[in-house]
Amino acid sequence: MKALVLEGERKLVYRTVPDPAPRSERDILVEVKFTGICGSDLPRAYHGKAYHYPLVMGHEFSGLVREAPATSAYAVGDRVVAFPLLACKRCGPCQTGDYAQCENYDYLGSRRDGGFAELVWVPEENLFRVPDRVDLLSAAMTEPCAVALHGVERLQVQAGMRALVIGGGPIGLMVAQWLRVKGCRPVTVADIDPAKLELAGRLGFAVVDSKKTDLVDETRAVGGADCVVEACGLPATFLQAVNCAGRFGQVVFMGNIAGDFVVPEKDFSRILRNEIRIAGTWNSKITPKGRDEWTRVLDSLDDRIDVKSLISHRPPLSAGADIFDRMAGRTEWFSKVVFTI
């Protein structure tokens, strides 16, 4: 089969590799149709963050069942997506269904080979069926959309709450959509990138250009935000998020931080006096089945949640090395890149 292989730091090669082999009798072979680049893939490829080489990255993908055991609930041709975290199912968090907190997990696309390839074996319990009405292209966005939903679930949202999302990238704009679905009004997206703000405006959100406007002053002028989600990962925006929250406000930190986050004394005092609640978030939940975040995402795609508008590039996988170079070099604007296999 063909795959985009990370052979070393900054060395991506599209080449023929041996077909993968199953690791369990319950594994299902998936023929990948679409696979997205996650924000974590760039440092993994270009900044030495890979666990090992060679590595086939890619943990956001959709496809068709190619092979399945006779006793499987899936059949050849079924449209599926895969939860990429492979939990041990033995530790304490796994016993409560909190697989993202597993103490000994594996991971498609980072710890083992993933979806930047034509074929990948996935444990049956990690697969979800894609509804007929949902495009497989949209379905490839299930994983990041579930991550966005999980972050919003860390908030106690009531209809009519004022919400602010700091960061207009794909995750931030999916977070904003989930906040709107949950009844937040208004939902404001803040960023310094005109293209991201334009896209947020087209999706129906109020926008603030943080380059031209003091975001904290602007937000406090209306009493502060009830819910703030930081989706950038910068120390400055972490502090902005805290300072934009109103009394009894809630803050969720989603961005993978780059640098040290220092809270000055006066800002920490404000957290205490205003009784601001701060939560972290990572990954998503696939339990309890039927009411899990992945099922809810799949029920909402191409309906209440618009992910196609976030996809700026749809190159073939063979162009992967060039795409990563262009993204790393910031030579053009990218929102979400989804490879067509």
How would you sum up this structure, described in words?
By secondary structure, this protein is α/β, with parallel strands linked by helices. It has 2 domains: 2-145 and 284-340, Quinone Oxidoreductase, Chain A, domain 1; 155-280, Rossmann fold (3-Layer(aba) Sandwich), CATH 3.40.50. It has helices at 41-46, 92-95, 136-139, 142-153, 170-181, 194-202, 215-220, 235-244, 265-273, 293-300, 320-329, and strands at 2-8, 11-16, 27-36, 60-67, 79-82, 85-86, 106-107, 119-123, 127-129, 163-166, 187-191, 206-209, 225-230, 245-253, 277-280, 311-313, 336-340. The strands form 4 sheets. Strands 3, 4, 5, 8, 9, 16 and 17 form a 7-stranded mixed sheet that branches. The chain has a 6-stranded parallel sheet with strand order 12-11-10-13-14-15, with helices on both faces. Helix 6 (194-202) links the parallel strand 11 and strand 12. The radius of gyration is 20 Å and the shape is globular. The mean pLDDT is 97.
How do the helices and strands line up, and which of them pair or pack?
Elements: E1 2-8, E2 11-16, E3 27-36, H1 41-46, E4 60-67, E5 79-82, E6 85-86, H2 92-95, E7 106-107, E8 119-123, E9 127-129, H3 136-139, H4 142-153, E10 163-166, H5 170-181, E11 187-191, H6 194-202, E12 206-209, H7 215-220, E13 225-230, H8 235-244, E14 245-253, H9 265-273, E15 277-280, H10 293-300, E16 311-313, H11 320-329, E17 336-340
Parallel strand pairs: 10-11, 10-13, 11-12, 13-14, 14-15, 16-17
Antiparallel strand pairs: 1-2, 3-4, 3-8, 3-17, 4-5, 5-9, 6-7
